[in-house]
């Protein structure tokens, strides 16, 4: 699909300057776009089409997000990020929403699927573009110190 059919375009403004985390964030944007495109493509195919798309995308997103959160939280903890607990709480809230969507999947409607895409879109914009930027200084300083120690 072309970029016009993407819901969210990866932009330099999302980059934190932490290559491993930036790559994971870029993949999350791809997952959001894949989910959106799958649902839109399947909208007129009846319930089964978008339900399959949602199911596959939810599984992939949930699996990937666990890896991303684990990596990010490990880095924040090692760096001594002062706001680690509230940041981790945001992660837990995301996991809870995703789990709720998976748990209630049998009751899902097209609107539910689209609402989840909107949730993912909003979360990516708010979390990556704002909340994650708050830890950049701490993590980069930690990385510089580690590099200086050899």
UniProtKB/TrEMBL annotation:
It comes from Candidatus Avitreponema avistercoris. This is Hemerythrin family protein. Belongs to the hemerythrin family. Pfam families: Hemerythrin. NCBIfam families: bact_hemeryth, hemeryth_dom. Keywords: Iron, Metal-binding, Oxygen transport, Transport. Residues 17-137 form the Hemerythrin-like domain. It comes from the Bacteria. GO terms for molecular function: metal ion binding; oxygen carrier activity. The lineage of its organism: Bacteria, Pseudomonadati, Spirochaetota, Spirochaetia, Spirochaetales. Signal peptide: none annotated.
């Amino acid at each position: 699909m072309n970029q016009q059919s993407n819901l969210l375009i990866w932009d330099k403004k999302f980059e934190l300057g932490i290559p491993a985390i930036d790559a994971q964030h870029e993949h999350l944007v791809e997952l959001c776009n894949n989910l959106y495109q799958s649902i839109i493509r399947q909208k007129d195919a009846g319930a089964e089409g978008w339900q399959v798309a949602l199911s596959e995308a939810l599984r992939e997103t949930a699996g990937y997000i666990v890896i991303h959160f684990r990596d990010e939280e490990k880095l924040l903890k090692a760096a001594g990020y002062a706001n680690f607990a509230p940041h981790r709480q945001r992660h837990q809230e995301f996991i809870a929403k995703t789990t709720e969507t998976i748990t209630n999947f049998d009751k899902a409607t097209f609107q539910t699927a689209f609402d989840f895409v909107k949730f993912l879109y909003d979360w990516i914009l708010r979390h990556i573009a704002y909340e994650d930027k708050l830890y950049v200084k701490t993590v980069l300083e930690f990385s510089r110190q580690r590099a200086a120690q050899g």
